[in-house]
Give the backbone structure.
Amino acid sequence: MKGYMNTQIGDITINTEVIAKYAGVSAVECFGIVGMASINVKEGIVKLLRKESISHGVNVTIDENNITIDLHIIVAYGVSISAVADNLISNVKYNVEDFSGLKVEKINVFVEGVRVID
């Protein structure tokens, strides 16, 4: 599904992969986030994603121009998960809405792992 906007001079279509990449970049900029996670469901293995594949830890669905975002993250050891998640949701919601012009209805955060940062 894609996001659509009608303007006076034409229509704008935004692919969910574009929104996923933008949300992923916004997420990893937040304090306490080590990175996005990829999960191998078959083996139950969680892997920290590199920057070029950051959108694989993000799932975006668009329903009637409302966006739902699932973020699979790895947090830093010693941080408050609730504080990090609140900050994450706020930043991603603001950035994606500002970028796309569409409303973010819901953001689900899945903490998939913890890493010690040197």
